[in-house]
Amino acid sequence: MSEYVGAARSLYLELRALGLKVWVEDDPDGVVLDYGLIVDGLRSLPETSARSARRRIRRHKEGLVLLLLDRRDPDLDAVRREGQRA
Known about the structure:
57% of the residues lie in helices and 14% in strands. The protein is α+β, with helices and mostly antiparallel strands. The chain has one domain. It has a two-stranded antiparallel ribbon with strand order 1-2. α1 packs across α3. 14% of the residues are buried. This is TubC N-terminal docking domain-containing protein.
């Protein structure tokens, strides 16, 4: 796993631990990526935490998209399934 995707993986797990939902949708108007990253629940965080999360999400957006599109990570699959049970 590249350091690039490793940082995105760590951020993804942190976001999920905060109770946020993170997924990818098709974005036909995308410039670099053809996918858009959706993060639901940022408004539930204190403003300083949400601002920090937004900044980190922007910095690692491409890595998060690549990570979420790769369905071969058994740890992330377990995290996704756990989130669906809640």
